[in-house]
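With this grant's support, we have settled on a layout for protein records. One resulting record is reproduced below.
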Amino acid sequence: MTRVCFMVLLLCIGLMCPLVTGIFMDRLASKKLCADDDCVYTISLARAEEDYNASDCRFINIKKGQLIYVYSKLVKEDDSGEFWAGSVYGEQYEDHMGTVGYFPSSLVSEQHVYQEANKTVPTTVRNLQKP
């Protein structure tokens, strides 16, 4: 009986609390350079010169020697770092292929440029309501 009362109490408290709608993170930049308006075409192929462990869900892990397709380059602002967006490439990384995220541009070297990133596109933030 005590368990049931406790569960009902937890349920009531849970219903009274507002739902969490998202985690708010600082935007890395307000603009990015892309090859097209939607930033879906590959700009270049880069090779990781060092390992990088993602600090949050916006970033991807990269391993030294890994190839990365680059889709956009954030425009550096004030004291922010320089980040590019891309996805890993290669059969040995098959479980991570297709996952797009940011990584520090200082940790990679461009191996091949497919097309120039000459379109400046604003970065977007989902319109989430604060709790």
